[in-house]
Every structure is written in structure tokens, then in C-alpha cells.
Amino acid sequence: MSDKHHEGDSAARADSERAASAAASCGAGPRQQRRMLVVSHAHRQEAIAATIEVVHALTEAGAVPVLDAEDRAAFEPHFDITRTETLGRDVAVIDLEVALVLGGDGTILRAAEMLRGSQCPIVGVNLGHVGFLAEMESNDLRATIERVLDRDYSVEERLTVDVRAITEEGEVIADTWALNEASVEKRRRMLEVSVGVDGRPLTNFACDGVVVATPTGSTAYAFSAGGPVVWPGVQAMLMVPIAAHALFDRPIVVDPHSEVTVTILPENIGPGVLWCDGRRRTELPAGSVVRVSKSDLTVRLARLDQAVFSDRLVRKFKLPVSGWRGERGGGIA
Description:
The protein is an alpha/beta fold. It has seven helices and 18 strands.
């Protein structure tokens, strides 16, 4: 047999081993039928068309599309729903190989909530605006499906935070988490807050709110509030004041093992509100303290595009780089 045939056999074996390893790491054994979660919404025609295409492609490939009960009911008028299974009734989260999420960052955050604590990776296809969490754009949908079916992706672990809110009397009123951020915000009147790190007071000020964000969330609400962009591989947390009436109103970046606290001072006239990823809401009476710390659980994002983060930043925010001196090969000095 020629060397060329030996090389072909070796490559085929290597591909097979990688595929089996990927299946095992996602909870799908090599002999099990592959079940893939599809998360979407039926509010826009583009999302409906994309969902129909994904469900058809997965079915044709012998995989089982899985929808949660809410999506299944929403899409029942649009395609034969009997070709799918229901998450939590027919399929447990642990049996999912991967999640294909069709929409913007809000849809991806909803999927992350469904998959909390599991090893199932998320592939985001952007049907929204910026869609910073999404891996691919809608015009890449066919190629994205094929690569997911071929298990041709890597997995990136993203830091999340645990969030607890406790009243002045010591009652725990929220015990939740966030991938992007936890924000303490005013209801009607400006809030008087005290911010601390690792059990020590840092500063007091009046503000519209405070965002405590992860590196993943640094391009979301924290960015809009004037916080820095933090590369997703950095292990850290950010504290960003919102419209603070103070001389010291700068964002701070802290060690991931620190605990950030935001206390709504007792002298506040009205309550505040805690939002986690813009999805989970808790009313905060005056005197409440919100504690934010690094979680032991991560969110797993599947990566098909191996572009460095700076390229993604330029592409998503349409940053002007045409005059960058480094393009001429002479460096930037």
C-alpha cells in the first residue's frame, strides 16, 4: 500500500477519534441517537425560517431536534412539530449534545439559563443586531449546521457569577447567577449606595445604578455604562457605576476570587431593583445588600470561527481600522 493511502487511513482514524471524543465530552455516546437543542423565537419571520431550516437539516442527518415547551408551542403552526422532542419531558439536559441558538444575545442568555450546570455547549447564530455572544451570522446558517453535525468546533468556558441579595433583616431574597452582569438599579429616585470589595468599604455615592459584570458582559450593559472592554479569557469582575453623582465614579476591575458588594443604604426613600442578565428580577428594599462572586459553574460556548477577539470586536462594532499603521508592516511605533 502506498504512503498516500497510509496517510489517508491515519487521517480518517484521527477524525473518527476526535468525533467520538467530542460526543463523549458532551454527554452523547457514540451509539446513542444525537439530540440537539434548538432555541429560537417565533416573533420574526427570519427566525421562523431559520428554525425550519435547522429542524429539517438535523432530521435529514438522523439527529433529533429538541425544543423547550414554550418554543414547541410557538412553532407548532409553522412546521410538523412531531419531528421534535420536548426538553424536560422527552429529553433531559444531560442527554443534549449541543444547543443551536437562533437569535440575538437575549436568546443566547435564555439558552444559557436552560442549560445551567450542564456540559452542553451553545452555538449562537446571530439574527439580532450586534449579537456579541453569537458565533456565526445568519448567512452562514447552512455551513454552521454542517459543522455542528461534523462536530467541527472547539469549546470555550465563560466565567459566570453567583448573585445573592439579602435584606437588612438577614432574609435571602435572591439566590441566582449571571453570565453577563448583575445590575442594581433605581426604581424612581436616584439610589444612595455603598460599594465594597472583599468585605471592606470602597466608596459611597448617589447614582442611577451599579453594574457588576463578567468579561463576557463587558461588551453589554457595562460597556453602555462606560466600562472597559475586557478580553473573554481574562479572569476578572468589573464594577461600573451608572450616572454616579460623585468625583470617584470610575469603573474598577477586581480579582475573580473577590466578592463585590452593593448596599442600598437605609436612608433611601424608595426601593431599588436587581436584574441578572436582564432576565431575572428582584425588588430590593432599602438596606439590602447584593453580593456578587465568581461561580463554580461556567457557560460553554462552541467556537467555529477561530478569529482572535480583537477581530471580532472590530467586526461587531464596525470599528475603523483602515488607517492603522501596522498594516504597512512597519509596526505602530
